[in-house]
Specification:
Two copies of one chain form a homodimer.
Chain A: H1 3-21, H2 28-34, H3 42-47, H4 50-78, H5 85-100, H6 109-121, H7 127-134, H8 137-146, H9 161-178, H10 186-201, H11 206-214
Helix pairs in contact in A: 1-4, 1-6, 4-5, 4-8, 5-8, 5-9, 5-10, 6-9, 9-10
Chain A binds a DNA duplex (30 and 30 nucleotides) through helix 3.
Chain lengths: 222, 222
DNA sequence: CAATTTCTAAGACAAGTGCTTTAGCAAGTC
DNA sequence: GACTTGCTAAAGCACTTGTCTTAGAAATTG
C-alpha cells in the first residue's frame, strides 16, 4: 500500500472517530488502529499532531464547499441582489446549501459536519482551525454581502446575528448528520434556509429598542 | 472541613474545569486537586463517576432555573395567552430568561451554561443528563404551550423548531458565557428573545411549501 | 467515655497516553 | 549493483488515567 493511500485511510478513520467521540476523544493510537495500521504512530508520521489532522480533514472538505459557495455568491451578484426579504433568503441559501450538500456526500460528509460544529462551538480550543474556517474567502465575502441587509442593531454587539446564524447553521447540520442516512435532505435544507433567514431578518422588538435607548452602550461589549 | 463542604468544593471545581476543557476534558484526579483535595480519589468517593458529577452540577442550577421558568409560565397562563406574535414572544421569554439569568449568577452560572450547551450539543454522549434536562417539568410544559403557536410544518420532522430553538438558545448563552464578566446582560437577553421568537415564528417559505407538497413525507424522517 | 460512622490521606495497580527510537522493507536513483 | 528515500513495524519512554486498598483522622452516636 502506498503512502498516499495510508494517509487517506488515516484521515477517514480520524474523521469517523472525531465525529463519534469528539475531536479530543480518540487517541492517536486508536485512530491508527482503526485505519488498519499496525503501526502505533502512523498518524504522527504523516500529520504530526492532532491539530494538523483536524486541519487536513477540514481542508479536504473545504475543497468542495468553497467553490460551491463562491459560485452561488457569483450568480447572486450578477443577478444584482434584490433588496428586502427575498434577496436575504438567497444569501442565506448561499450560506446553507454548500454545507448542507455534505449531508449527501457519503465520503465523510456527515462526519465533517459534526466536526465543524465542534470547532465552531469551542473556538478557543480549536483556535487555528476556527480561524481558518472563518477566514475562508467565501465566508468573508458572505459576511460583507449580508451586512447591509441586517437591522443596524443586529450587526454590532452584544449579539452579532451573522455569527449567531453561522453557529445555528453548523449546530443544526451536525444534529441532522448524527441522525444517520436519510435519503433526501432537500426539504430539511429548505427549512434550514427559512430559519437562517429568520434569524438574520428578525425584527428588533420594541422591548429591545427600549433597552438600546435607555442604557448607554456597554463598554464591556466590544 | 466537613464532608458537605468538600462535596461543594469538588462540585465547583468540576464545574469550572468542565466549562474550560469540556466535560470529558479534565481527569478525576485533576478535579480533586483543583478542589484542594490531596486525596486523588475524593471525587469517586463522593459522586462515583463522571456522569454523576455532571448530574449533580446540573441539578444544583436547576433548583433555581426550574421555579423561575414555572413562575413565568404561571403568570403567562393566568393572563391568558394572547394569540399571535406577542404571545409567542412572551413564551420565548419564558424559555430564555431563566437560563439567561445564570449569566449574572457568579456562583458557577456561566460555567453551567457552557456545560448545558455541551450536553445539548452531544445528547447521545450525555444521554442521562440530556434526558433529565429535556424532561424537566418546565420544559415539558413549555413545549406543550408553544406548539399551537407554530406553523404546522414547523412541528414535525425534518426540523422541529421547538428543539432547534432550544439548541440555539443554549449555544448562544454558552458563547456569551465564555466572553467573561459583562456587567449587564439585559440587552443581550432581549436580543436573544427576539431571535428565539423569530425561529419559532419564521414563515414557511414558498420554496419550502413546494418541497412539502411535491415530495411525499419521508418515511426515514421519524 | 467508647464505639461507630464518615471522611481524607497516601499509595499502588494495570492500562492507556503522546511521543521517540530503532529496525526493516520496498520502491525508485545514480 | 550500491544507495538514498518513503514508509511501516515494533518496542520502549516517561507520564497520566480510572480504580482500589489500606490506614488514620474527625465527627457523630451510643
Amino acid at each position: 500500500m502506498s503512502g498516499e493511500d495510508t494517509r487517506r485511510d488515516l484521515l477517514l478513520a480520524a474523521e469517523r472517530l472525531f465525529a463519534a467521540g469528539g475531536i479530543d476523544g480518540p487517541s492517536m493510537r486508536e485512530i491508527s488502529k482503526a485505519a488498519g495500521q499496525l503501526n502505533t504512530s502512523a498518524l504522527q508520521y504523516h500529520f504530526g499532531d492532532r491539530q494538523s489532522v483536524l486541519a487536513a480533514i477540514i481542508d479536504r472538505h473545504h475543497r468542495d464547499v468553497e467553490p460551491h459557495r463562491l459560485g452561488l455568491l457569483d450568480t447572486l451578484e450578477l443577478d444584482g441582489e434584490p433588496p428586502g426579504e427575498s434577496g436575504l433568503r438567497e444569501l442565506a441559501a448561499a450560506l446553507v446549501l454548500p454545507q448542507a450538500a455534505r449531508l449527501d456526500h457519503h465520503d465523510g460528509g456527515p462526519e465533517y459536519l459534526q466536526i465543524i460544529a465542534e470547532v465552531t462551538a469551542r473556538p478557543e480550543r480549536f483556535a487555528a482551525s476556527f480561524a481558518a474556517v472563518s477566514a475562508a474567502p467565501s465566508m468573508v465575502r458572505w459576511r460583507a454581502l449580508v451586512t447591509p441587509f441586517l437591522p443596524p442593531a443586529a450587526v454590532g454587539p452584544p449579539l452579532h446575528r451573522r455569527f449567531a446564524a453561522i453557529r445555528f447553521l453548523n449546530g443544526e447540520l451536525a444534529t441532522r448528520a448524527r441522525e444517520h442516512h436519510r435519503p433526501d435532505h432537500r426539504l430539511f435544507a429548505s427549512h434550514l434556509v427559512d430559519l437562517v433567514t429568520a434569524i438574520l431578518a428578525a425584527p428588533v422588538s420594541a422591548q429591545t429598542s427600549r433597552h438600546i435607548h435607555s442604557s448607554p452602550p456597554n463598554p464591556a461589549d466590544r
